[in-house]
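Board notes (copied after class):
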Amino acid sequence: MGGGGGYGFSPIDKKTIEEKAKDRIKEAESAQSRNVFISFAYEDMGEVNLLRGQAKNDNSELEFSDYSVKKAYNSEDSDYIKRKICEKIEKASVTMVYLSKESMKSPWVKWEIEMRRVKKWERELLQSTKAILLHQVYLRTSKIMQIL
């Protein structure tokens, strides 16, 4: 959620993000509501707030619980800000990127997307590790049962 920075997304990154977003929207059409973290540039706050308002409108088909940052953290400590954003990302079931010229340049948006990827990878690794450990326990138990 910041501006500037000097690096952002390449046109290929943008196209990939757009394609993935379209796929996710198709998947989500059948779901009732999602817990959403919205990644956006601070400059887009007004438009993102309109999107949030649409989700609260009973006459709108758009429905989600907003787990994103609603107000800039009052801190110059980037580690603190990152920790608070990570907490929000972890609580959300999906991350939505509000694409704009500003968000495409934002180092914060890029970081938030990377954090979502890391958190997803950590969850998958944890699940895989649990499965491997359970399998090892099963094998040991089977050997013990054969001995008895």
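Comment from the instructor: The first strand starts at residue 34 and ends at 39. The mean pLDDT is 75.
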